[in-house]
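Sample entry (278 residues):
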Amino acid sequence: MLTVLIFGVLLYVTVSTGADVVVLTTENRQQEVTEFDLANPSHKNRVHQHRKNPSGISYDPVEEKMYWAEPGAKAIYSSKVDESQHQTVHSNVNVYDVTVNIEGREVIYTDSRSISRISIKDHHVSTVVSHATGAIDIEYDPIDKHIYWSNFIGNVIEKCTYPAGQCSTLVKTPFPLNMAIDPKGKRLYWVSGSHEQVESIGLDGHNQRTEMSSNDDMYTALDFYDGNLYVGVHNSKQAKIEKYDVNSRHTTTITTEDYRSYYDIAVSPKQGSGHIIG
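Predicted structure, serialized as tokens:
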């Protein structure tokens, strides 16, 4: 069960598995956003096709909407999974990644120079980190109220208080790419610049280790959900999404496709349901 604070009340969100879990991907070669259920991964819904370099994607289970970035269109978009309520959330911005702050009812995003947040309700924009050159991916920790962003140019991952934006270096690592966070387990995961490894480190900056490694596959997309790391992988023959159990370190292939290149993945309960108490 996921507990979030919204508008001064506690919302208890029931988290299920299988058909109640949505998996979203952005894909570079086909230029599309795709959705499928964990219970039936072979049946995919091409939600939005003919996009312009879709990159970071995130999901809001409260309103059942997805938010994604399109650097080629310089915009952030949102819609329901059935393609309804499609709208432009923000435009004329060199956006790379987005993450939904569920309890804050906002979308946090990176552009080419800064990190900002935009209100889901009225689309008001405010800057969180004014100097974030090289930020290509961002994660939000709703428990400790921090953001983490990968600085591809500076070869570091930064940790910042939120929303104050006071930053320090979490770890120095060559060309960090896409990340995923486990707030409960207090670990951050990321793809190395070579795409050949998935690394992790404690949110306190200690206990760095290699989680996954391959000479044949390239790791690209990451997300964390319910004790598992979901990883987008591709090679010269196929693309696949793998589920990596961070405790047993066992890997299971969820789905396999030809000629694809996942940029990002979002795994989330489809709905935020339950009862609200004062």
